[in-house]
Amino acid sequence: MATLDRRKNRAPPQAARSDRHAVLIANGDLREEANRVCWPAQQALEAALGKAFAAAGWRLSRGHAASKSRGHGFIASAREGLDVFAAIDPRAPLVVAEAVWQYSNHVLPGLSTHAGPILTVANWSGQWPGLVGMLNLNGSLTKAGVPYTTLWADDCASPTFRRHLESWLGTGAVHHDTSHVVPLAAVSIPKPLQRTADRIASELRRQKALMGVFDEGCMGMENAIIPDRLLHATGVFKERLSQSALYHETMRVSDAEARDVFRWLEKAGMRFHFGRREATDLTKAQVLLQCKMYVATLRIADRYSCDLVGIQYQQGLKDLLPASDLVEGMLNDSKRPPVTAEGSSRVLWKGRPLVHFNEVDECAGLDGLLTQRVHEALGEPVENTLHDIRWGDWDQSRTTDQWVWVFEISGGAPPSHFIGGWKGAEGHRQPPMYFRLGGSTLAGVSKPGEIVWSRIWVNNVAGQEKLCMDIGRAQVVKLPEAETRRRLEETTRQWPIMHAVTYGVSRDQMMARHKANHVQVAYAKDAAGADKAALTKAAVAQSLGIEVHFCGTRGHGVSPHLRWDAQ
Known about the structure:
Blueprint: E1 2-5, E2 21-25, H1 32-55, E3 59-62, H2 78-86, E4 94-98, H3 108-112, E5 118-123, H4 130-144, E6 148-153, H5 159-171, E7 181-183, H6 191-207, E8 209-214, H7 228-232, E9 236-241, H8 243-252, H9 255-268, E10 271-272, H10 284-303, E11 308-311, H11 325-331, E12 355-356, H12 362-378, E13 384-394, E14 403-408, E15 426-427, E16 449-461, E17 464-476, H13 481-490, E18 497-502, H14 507-513, E19 518-524, H15 527-543, E20 547-551
Helix pairs in contact: 6-15, 8-10, 9-10, 10-11, 12-15
């Protein structure tokens, strides 16, 4: 399937050329092991695209050669990206093909000045997160104000894909249905909810909030950085912290304190899958270091009076400490190991989360802060997290006849979201190709229930940046163990997973509209409560100057009378 995502700051260039030749680039990871492991999937996608272009009477050639010595053909650094673009015809139709996770900063400088039409395309596969990588690049291009078209496909030989590809080749555009999106101005907010929203927004503007950022720009995610002037308008300011300070503080935490945190996790019911080989297995030593990082994060956040924090980890801490993901999930839960201020008996954030935004995604951080305050005001669960929009498929068990998304993330998911809570939480070693020093995941299967999903993103029209929010509703469904296992094996089995059915938003509509690799989620007690939470958060965002659009329908269906703008 395919879609169009054109920026409005300038008309997209026409793809048609007399030589009927397009250039392909493949952006990859900074970590060479990941590039080598994932290279066969990229080769398969490129071969399929080459056949599709040939069927349309076009030639598709690589803009940079694969390296036998490196074992792959990805652009693997920002410098390499600059060199590749220096040798490409600046007006050539350009295809960015992604079957893997990619670092957008490798190619964004070249794409920002490319005069020819740009197509981003991904295979529909959960194996290596090419869909996630493409969505991140799309969000980064949107923030940069660069026009592009985006396509994805289960099968590049399908008539639908071929038709959309031919449209892009001929006109530089692909039509896509986005009728599921309605502006907040068309939606009636009940007066009691509006009053609650106004109070929350007023308090935030008056008292302000500090976003603790342990180094910006995780893995080249340009779309995850909010420009200061846009953030300040919401009443939120960055406290720029260093991961070197976090490392230092981690190493200062005592072994006894780390053991206390670990014993709490075991007593709560979390199961760790330990082995003996540090290079490939999860070890207790790795987990104890994560417990120290957890204590250190809370103490630094307390020292600077932060209201929320985000840890970059990659690439900053990856060569010093095990993964931060277990830490992040603990922070995001109300029920977690107690930590006292250094030299004091005062428990830090007792009985409530310290909002953490995975991969220092500041858009997710702002969303998480608003979510926490809205849900607290409404008496709804405050725990929230981001997930990757990793993949999706029809339910092979036929438990439901709905399209079911796989929302999945390495870290940040709170156990309160899992079936069984902490007793449903498991710790697996992070995949070695991404996480050399290992560390435990905080894995679990999300419980069935009603959720609000949302995404804050930066738009750029004619050089003018503004904050936007898309918000909608979904249901988390429970699938049989075998179907859950199938989906985990198709993605990353060590990570927490959420089976989500979006109300009134199809797969292709989500892919067409969404401007990020991440989506924010939070539970409510029931469907009515989730609808109220979505309406209230939308009103808060609007009061803070964020442009808001509702997506899909309210809870329990796709009927027109459930549209957000239905009167």
